[in-house]
Amino acid sequence: MACEESITTRIHHRAIPPIYLSYSNQTGFIERYFVVKLYEQLVGSGLGEGVIWFDHHQGIHPDKSATWFADRLEAIDLSIASILILSNACQHQRLMTIESKAIADRKLLSGTSTVYGLFVILLDECHDFQYLRSRADYFYAFNKTDSMSEVGERVSMILKELLTKLIPYKQFSSIQNNATMYEHKINEEEPKQLCSWTAKDIQSFITRVGVQQSSRDIFVEKQIDGYLLLA
């Protein structure tokens, strides 16, 4: 039975969405409720299944998988962006500290030539995580007054700007899937592998599949070619 459950978990895990949602399930009710409400709002805004990794929907958590933490670290490694939700309580949790460092390292190792995104939300005054500010593409720290607001109000404070930052990553995920299909078509016409596409080839392709100009500009800025797209 345990073996079957592990196999099922791994099958789900192979289809990891591109945006990793990092949070602690060992904090207080309000903090966990914030994560759930934020996730619901992101889903309602079109960033649901196939975009946001939420381990309770995948069966990857301590109650059901002995490989829970290894699966989370692997999800970080395979993601193209991370939403990191932290609080003062997280500073005293060793696993959360390791996970946040893994995300920061993932961002750092991606360098300036890729589109890997880091979006940080501090729920309270957790000073040990302030070093993430310089690395983050989006950083929001709730002050004491904000922290007294209802959870729904706090989610509303960040949702619009966060969505603006996240939407291009949903499109990037679609590009990865479409590129694989498009590569087969290209190969029938001319022997050119996706890894050898130039930045100009990528621009031509994402224009053809209908990617918005704002997202295409990101590819130009980062000089994304076929090799980087695969990476």
UniProtKB/TrEMBL annotation:
InterPro entries in the cross-refs: Toll_tir_struct_dom_sf (IPR035897)
Protein name, entry field: TIR domain-containing protein
